[in-house]
Predict the structure.
Amino acid sequence: MTDAGAAGEAVGESSGAADDGDPGAFAALGSEVRAALSERGFTTPTEPQRKAIPPLVDGENVLVVAPTGTGKTETAMLPVFDALEGEDRFGIGALYITPLRALNRDMRERLEWWGDRLDLDVQVRHGDTTDYQRQKQANDPPDVLVTTPETLQAMLTGSKLRTALADVDHVVVDEVHELAVSKRGAQMTVGLERLLELADGFQRIGLSATVGDPAEVGQFLTGDRGCSVVEIDVGSRLDVRVRSPQVQDGDEGLAGELMTDPDFASHVRYIRDLVEEYDSTLIFVNTRQLAEALGSRFKELDANIGVHHGSLAKESRIEVEDQFKAGELDGLLCTSSMELGIDVGHVDHVIQYNSPRQVTRLLQRVGRAGHRRDLVSRGTIVTSHPDDTLEALAIARKARAGEVESADIHDGSLDTVANQIAGLVMDFGDIRAMRAYEIMTRAYPFRDLSEREFKSVVRELAGNKVIWLEEETDEIQKRRGTWQYFYHNLSMIPDEATYSVEDVASGRDVGTLDERFVVNFATPGEVFIQRGEMWRITEIDEEEETVTVSPVEDPGGEVPSWTGSEIPVPYAVAQEVGEMRGIAGRQLQSGAPVDSVAREFTARYDGDADTIAGGLEQVADHEHPIPTDRDLLVEFRGRELVVNAAFGHKINETLGRLLSALLGQRTGSSVAMEIDPYRIELEVPRNVSATDVLEVLEETDPEHLPELIELSLKNADSLKFKVAQVATKFGALKRWRGRGSSGKFGRDRLMDALEGTPVYDEAVREMLHEELDVDGAAAVLERVQSGDLSVELLGERTPIGLGGRSAGQELLSPDHADASVIQTVRERIQNDRMILFCLHCQDWERKKPVKRIRDRPECPECGSTRIAALNPWADEVVSAVKAAEKDDEQEKMTERAYTSASLVQTHGKQAVIALAARGVGPRNAARIINKLREDEDEFYRDILRREREYARTRSFWD
């Protein structure tokens, strides 16, 4: 796309394009900006420009809510350029704050033409900006500075930059919805209040994707100082269809080619074909692991599709962005980072693989498509199992109807208060506590912060030697540790270690795991999904920060204990899925054919009859009371107990913790728990029954739920980990390294030391905010106890209750997964090097890769076949054999060498292969060799079993 073409899409419409407005909005701009617009050939503003430019020119605070690609950036910046053009000033006239560094690069590229044309200096500043460039900006400030929330924090403390910031008249916050739901955003709002202490006042402009409560996001942006909201209706311009591909002729062959199952092969084929129908397609997935797994399948098919996600190197991301923008790629497979306004040129279609989980996610993602001619955003949600399909149908309907989730603002985060108290001390040198409190509480997320809470944070910081508190004068002062603390905590994103994951079968790196996962979940024997495959943890080395894993042999028979960070499904979406089950269930159980019911659903939902019939598959097979939005079904068999509850992730997590804690307390045994938006799965002692669950739901006082949940959290590793993270932000720990530095004992001591402090209070608050919904769960208990929600008990498992077990496993095929694992083991062993040592002459010794060893090894010096095959680190065994006098240890080594040689003499290279395996000594090698089997794969399968056994027990032998 040419520069002019790119600008046409971003700025407005040329005279030949669709006209959804008039040039009146552009007429409100000054002559120089209008002349620049004319040079570009743009006469008609886009809808957001038409509605927002007039109040922006008048100096109002404005929040613009519109999809990506509708010219939001220029909506904000044309009036800002107009105000700055021709002014004589020393300092920075406007700040443009974005949540991503990649957006900084885009903004500079998009705004430079306007800066050059209007003689305005536009520059970027973030963590990677060179010292030379920083100094230059301090001495000669640009007119417009594009930056991040964290860099704003650093700028506010620099003496020269504070002078430059005093001239700021405009602050634009891009993707403000993204910041509103994070501590980064809460920190930024206080930063803007600190900026207000320098500047006389400034206009605040927010740019946002669709949110359910734009008025509150406007309050977040402005500190509740008044904000005009310009909102573009997205739902009416949304064309989204939900499709669940069916296996077709040829998909069986494709499955073999891709080493996957036919169902997943059909998804890959369908997405590939869909990409070929359009010029430029974004394909969104919910996790990086799935992006890699799907990307590898497209690569096998030579599909012209790139991969983009946050774990890739910056250079790799920029390369695929540029390739897609230039039209060199037909599709770009991406994760949530591409929801934001990174400029990748025109997009005419968006594919979402699997449910987007939330209405806002769907609108942000599909909203990236279209806008050039008919202003319609087109997208397809490709689903993979019944829950996924019903959920996607509900979300697509809600998106069209404008039923969008509210922004979940981080109100009153105390570690952010601690961070910004240090920032204020850095700004002023010393400041009265009540003055700092007044500045802090001007920021919207801290409007309800009490003086008591504020003072407790100040005292905690003083006790941690971050600041000095002069009690008599109520003054907070800078001390030697303030500077170091502040600059080590510029970001509110927690500092976490990363553990490398190593496959015991191949010795290769699988990927990485976040410290949070390792601390909260990882123990030997647990199963998780990474890179589209299932792995069982065999060992955790906390010092080396390494997790050793082995591939799961039969993925179809396993339930992954952890599948990565899931986007939580909201209550309203889960409830609609429950309602759909109820409506369909009543018809199906009265004898209506599933195809007929599915056709009726097409009148309300954006799916074809076949897709909807697939979504109703569990309901059609379910011959018991149907769990709905108003009916709970508790089913149990043996130690498995499932509460079918359509309340979404957070409420189910809260109820699950309650049930797990109280049932465990009753029996004196631990109760394992897994949840999804529609089920709470418990593994209970045999003396627990469904009636015990019913008693908890009927007898627990909803008013006591907050205390019960907090008690249930006290022994949770997740809270201990959170306390440690928050303690770092308070300066109580210099740097938190979850397990490797302190271990479980250290975390327990830390919890005991900090209970009753603002550190502990903030850790609990954050967990309640991010993972749980206590109020929602209390409302469920009230409804159960009033009879508004019915609860049925069933002494067997049902299709719906079992339905959650297949979620997330659609990439895996037991046969193919096993075959690929065995091939990996074979390749690794064939490339391993072994020491061959002649026990007859004891003169010949060679180190060779297994693949280069003869079927019947013999000594080239003496011709003997008495050859020991030893691991490459076994030099001491050779020395022991040669020793004239041997101690007990050397005798054992010698015996091992002769046993090895006996195996090689009898079984040849097969013995060498078995002896090359990790932790497989001569005795186990003999067992492996002597076992009767049908094929070579079984031989390697037995080797792998022995290696896994060794990996599990290695710490014992060591």
Summary: The chain is about 50% helix and 15% strand.
